[in-house]
Model the fold of this input.
Amino acid sequence: MLNLCWIILGLPLAAAALISLLVIPFEKASKEKDFFRTLSAWISVLSISAAFILSVILFRQFQAAQGHYGTALEASLPWMNLAGIKMELGILLNPIALIMLLIVNGVAALVTIFSARYMQGEEGYSRYFAALSFFVFAMLGIVLANNLIQIFIFWELVGVASYLLIGFWFQKPSASLASKKAFLTTRVGDAGMMLGILLLFGILVQTGTGTFNFLELETKLHQNALPSGLLTWACIGLFLGAVGKSAQVPLHVWLPDAMEGPTPASALIHAATMVAAGVYMLARLFFLFEMSPVALQVIAWTGVATALIAATIAVVQNDIKKVLAYSTLSQLGYMVMAIGLHHPEAGMFHLVTHAFFKALLFLGAGSLIHALHTQDIWQMSATLNSQKNAGFKKLPITVITFLIGTAALAGIPFTSGFFSKEEILNAASHGPLAIFIASLVVVMLTAYYMGRVLTVVFFSSASKAHGKHPHDIHEDNALVTLPLIILAIFSIAAGYLPFQALLSDDSHAAHPPLWLAILSVSLAVFGLLASFVLYRNKTEDRHAAIFQVPVKIIQEKFYFDHFYDWFVSRIQGGLAIAADFFERKILVAFGTEGTAKLVTAVGSVVRKMQNGWIQTYGLFFVIGWIILISYLIGSGGNS
Amino acid sequence: MIHPTAEHYLVLSGILFSIGLFGLFVRRHILIMLLCLELMLNAANLALITASSVHGQTDGQIVSFFVMVIAAVEVTIGLAIAVLLFKEKNTVDTEQTTSLKG
Done:
């Protein structure tokens, strides 16, 4: 069964290698560029789809063989065996990994199919598919990893893939800046993660032997009482990795900028899978975080802060992808919060449903952008609504699937988002009151900002009658619409998964109470209605007119970017100047250049001995030889 | 007629070595200096063979063969240098060839 895992892991890597090492060089040499581009798309789509089908088979086999919670299968190849440190490349298969395997491969397969059409005509078409396949490989590596070192390596590899895809249009300065920002910001978190891993290893060494392996780690943690202070720091270090990758406050700034990348890549990486890696890691290592109540509190508060801040910022965004990006941040905050509140199964459930409906929303946004040639909701509105109900007539599938995605995101009953959000709110209702209230506010804000987008883009009849004429707007072919339809189906159906039973042996876990459902749904409906009332038939943003000062703060995204700019230019810049001074004036002046000067000075005196007379050299030689001989004879006599 | 003993040979070797060394320092003609070097090498050979016969072992004699080989090599290179030096500077006096100085 585990052999299948290796194949699933290897397929996308093989595709990436095949495209980048064979297809792209041939494409460059050939005149038939279209043939090779189509070939790369086929390689990518086929390998990822095959990986998905194999994952389904794997899931069936696992269910048949194991069937219940708590069992895990492991296989590993030795990598390095040093004294006391065993490194391996392994696979750990348990229900949570299987579910992620299905999500990653499933969404990735749909996104690659969508991309095959969406990216057509791009210069770097093949490069895009190589990077996408490579991303899937790296992500699967995280999902299947059985030890901390391996998860860290693949953690960095998804970072690279993300960098490549955000910077896909690297000729555009904003895109290349955004890719650098994403890479460097997540590196900050990753540094913390590495420290966490090393600290954890150090703690374990103190109590016996260290290990990176998850299963061994779990056994050890249950056997030995570890020093809780250090353990908390290790947990917080690991959590920092998740803060970076899952874009939690304060390292969230890279994700909105990452929207510079191609929309399908945003759907896959920056909405459905990679940003969920942090949440997945927290859930997978929950046995570890469970040991440290302080770390869990930090996690919960970080999550809720992210959810609230991001949802607030989303309200004032005018770029449809930016709205979705902030919405992703906010939903990730929800997941992290649920894990911090001892409910990893709720967080994972929301991860699954969110992967579907957010990928759907992003691909829907991609379809809209493709049809309307703008990302700005006001321009979209102007183009689409110059004719009554043009949206429904010209882009029926896009609009309807987008509505389904929005319903799921807002937590409207009978969609998947409703069920998972209830689980999370249920977790929050048992936590501190402030967290519960904040998460309810986020429910309302989520409905409000999505309602705003919907009202402006689809339900306004106000028109400035400029832009593209609606006759040119049309739905794209099946490569675009089919993934939308499939994702829409899953956005509803994923809610009916027996998720609790899969992830937890706690079969009598409390179902969310009815009052909570009523409360959250009425908040969501209130948010939707409020946005409808405020934005019906409007052609520009109205927040600034109603609330002036708060909107300014929110529009500046709570000054996080300003703060980082200030920090980098002042604090880090100051440190750099100090370090530069130390290097030039002290290290170089006294160290490297000082030694050189000393040698020159000594040399200018000593070189006088070199007078060119061979006899002088002979004399020196003989004198030296006499000294040596007499020393040897003398010491020989003494002993 | 004195029958020569090991001491005689060693003294002779020392004298030869000293003559060679003295010649190396006082003479300025490069060919003479090379001859002096040869003399010193042969003095060393004589000492080696003497020691070998005193101890009744062949090691010293074997080493002396190596010394001869080295002497031959050294003379080859030395003479080549002398020839080139004469071609270049038109002199074999070491006092005239002191351009390599610090």
In short: Strands of chain A lie at 73-82, 85-93. The interface with chain B takes residues 606-615, 618-619, 622 of chain A (CB under 8 Å).
